[in-house]
Specification:
Elements (H helix, E strand, L loop, with lengths): L5 H15 L1 H5 L10 H22 L4 E8 L5 H5 L4 E8 L2 H10 L6 E5 L12 E6 L9 H14 E14 L1 H17 L1 H20 L6 H5 L13 E2 H10 L2 E8 L4 E8 L1
Parallel strand pairs: 1-2, 1-4, 2-3, 4-5, 5-6
Antiparallel strand pairs: 5-8, 7-8
Length: 268
């Protein structure tokens, strides 16, 4: 039996998160642990606030056409995209998240949810007017997957279509710090590597057969160290190259606290 791909293992991890505490794993605040109706209302309202911020940042206006929410989870931003587009598509790697998203948003006929496969997104080339994504690219398990997602943004947008997303970035000093940390991990992190490798092997089995169970300790601590959840940064130069290569032109880019960079770009 072939070994599951990197993306399949990542999807298995997010299936586990979705079955555990989906609101919390999307919006990691203590109030989102087993949220009641008031906290769930806050969850959805936060999506509206975030989309309003993206609208102001990128100068977005309502357009007839499809808006895409990359890494949609339960559809927190997908639902809010109704203010900007006539049709909304939530994309996620987790089948379990998408099941719950469809249930949570069944009252909204303009919305649909699709699962990201191994290669291209399940969206036709040049068919969308907007792609948005917040706090998603940083959790992709490799920088190659991060770049691939940016490339797909460019592929699915119509000329003049907009992409608005954020991602942590590094400058040369950050590269040096990251290199020193990775050197220290190579020296002292043998046991940690073995523990995470064993956890990924269990997720691989879960991806194949769905037969593994995980403890709260593993889900709330150990799995946060996996590449599918651990925060990653991309260099500013590599980010600019990825954006330019897929036919997007940066219209605004701001690097904020902790290197989190917000980007607005337009398809040429």
């Amino acid at each position: 039996m072939p070994k599951p791909s990197r993306r399949a293992i990542d999807a298995a991890a997010w299936d586990v998160f979705a079955r555990h505490q989906p609101y919390y794993h999307i919006l990691s605040h203590p109030s989102m642990l087993s949220p009641g109706p008031d906290q769930q209302a806050e969850f959805w309202a936060s999506g509206e606030q975030d989309i309003a911020s993206l609208q102001a940042f990128a100068g977005l206006v309502f357009e007839v056409g499809a808006g895409v929410d990359l890494g949609c989870g339960l559809g927190r931003l997908t639902r809010a995209l109704r203010a900007l587009t006539s049709h909304q598509i939530g994309l996620d790697i987790s089948a379990e998240m998408l099941i719950q998203a469809r249930e949570a948003n069944r009252a909204f006929s303009s919305m649909e949810f699709r699962q990201i496969g191994e290669h291209h997104w399940p969206i036709e080339t040049g068919s969308c007017v907007l792609v948005s994504s917040l706090y998603v690219l940083q959790h992709m398990s490799t920088l190659d997957l991060m770049e691939h997602s940016i490339s797909e943004m460019g592929r699915i947008l119509v000329p003049g279509g907009k992409a608005v997303f954020n991602v942590p970035t590094l400058r040369w000093r950050g590269h040096l710090i990251q290199w020193m940390r990775s050197l220290g991990e190579r020296i002292t992190g043998v046991q940690r590597k073995e523990r995470l490798k064993a956890l990924e092997e269990r997720l691989a089995r879960h991806a194949r057969m769905g037969s593994e169970t995980f403890t709260d300790q593993e889900i709330m601590h150990d799995m946060f160290e996996l590449d599918s959840r651990r925060m990653k940064s991309i260099s500013i130069s590599r980010l600019r190259t990825a954006i330019r290569t897929c036919g997007l032109k940066i219209s605004r880019m701001e690097r904020g606290e902790f290197g989190l960079t917000l980007v607005a770009a337009e398809k040429q």
